[in-house]
């Protein structure tokens, strides 16, 4: 595009004048690693006056890259995150990380308390058992491992590559007898079950494909976190079809931040955090956002992540 001065005096005057139609100025940090975080970044990037910076942990080798600015890697704890937001002139933080990414969510709460920045939790509903399901709830991966030997012999383990040591024998001789199909995005390392095959894959996964996979490997028990999301729930439907029990690891306690399931709500909230150029405003409240510490109810709703 030609510079305004080269397009004539009127264009140059327009370029020099403040844009009173778009007074919005907001810099938002989106803590990401999920597809709902990417959906939010895609909605915000390119909006006049909005600077969106997505943050990825850097765990995945070839991550899906959100729209807008992106930074990768840890901040160095809550204090590092607080310092980083100050240095970047951040006005608002959206924690759109995975429901099981407990540490970064706690750091977001602590950093925003320290800096006074508004914080919104954008998350997704958990899965609910359906008629015909045979679910066995576990409070942790370790508890899931203790339940497994009573349920099956050939395990489809879809809890990601972190925490596989919980399924490495010991703790029990019975666990050591089991065979595991371990599905994750990147190759796992560290302790893991000895009898195993590792399947590297990235969702989404359809019900039919999951059904075929489970039959091919003669799976008789499935293990999953209650991550929620339509893109990876095909395994639950396939397990139901096949009459396979499912060990479901419950979610950790929710973040102590106001929360929403809706990307639309999050966009409105970010816009409500906008400041006049040069001024800082306290955080806006989003209609429907839940009070700090409230548990977001489980139930059906939009689900967007292909992460397990
Ligand atoms: N946990 C899961 O099952 C799962 C599944 C799918 C996707 N993910 C995504 O993968 C990432 C890591 O998950 P996790 O469970 O390992 O996290 P975590 O245990 O909650 O966080 C561990 C540390 O990783 C860094 N970190 C995490 N997320 C970050 C982000 N978005 N940007 C910058 N630093 C981040 C922080 O390091 P510092 O303390 O140095 O800041 C944090 O203290 C998350 O962003 C999450 O959304 C997780």
Word description of this protein:
The chain has helices at residues 9-16, 35-44, 77-88, 102-115, 141-147, 173-176, 207-216, 234-242, 263-272; strands spanning 26-31, 50-56, 69-72, 92-95, 119-122, 135-138, 154-157, 179-184, 196-200, 221-225, 246-249, 259-260. By secondary structure, it is of the alpha/beta class. It has two domains: 23-125 and 253-272, Rossmann fold, CATH 3.40.50.720; 135-249, Rossmann fold (3-Layer(aba) Sandwich), CATH 3.40.50. Strands 3-2-1-4-5-12 form a six-stranded parallel sheet, sandwiched between helices. A six-stranded parallel sheet has the order 6-11-10-7-8-9. Strand 4, helix 4 (102-115) and strand 5 (119-122) form a beta-alpha-beta unit. Helix 3 (77-88) crosses helix 4 and helix 7 packs across helix 8. The longest helix is centred in the middle third of the chain and has 14 residues, at 102-115. Residues 1-8 and 281-305 have low confidence and may be disordered. NADP nicotinamide-adenine-dinucleotide phosphate is lined by residues 31-34, 55-57, 59, 74-77, 80-81, 97-98, 100-104, 107, 160, 225, 307.
- Ends apart, CA distance between termini: 44 Å
Q: Given this structure, which CATH class of the largest domain is correct?
A: Alpha Beta
Please work out how many helical segments DSSP would assign.
9
Computed Rg = 23 Å
Beta-strand content? 15-25%
Q: Give a short account of the largest sheet.
A: 6 strands, parallel
Residue stretches low in confidence (pLDDT < 50, at least 5 long) are 1-8, 281-305
The count of DSSP E runs of length 2 or more, i.e. the number of strands, is 12
Helix coverage percent of residues? 25-40%
CATH superfamily of the largest domain: NAD(P)-binding Rossmann-like Domain
**Quick check: average pLDDT?**
87
Question: What sequence of helices (H) and strands (E) makes up the elements?
Answer: HEHEEHEHEEHEHEEHEHEEH
**CATH level-3 fold name of the largest domain:** Rossmann fold
Which strand order do you get reading across the main beta sheet? 3-2-1-4-5-12
Identify the CATH architecture of the largest domain.
3-Layer(aba) Sandwich
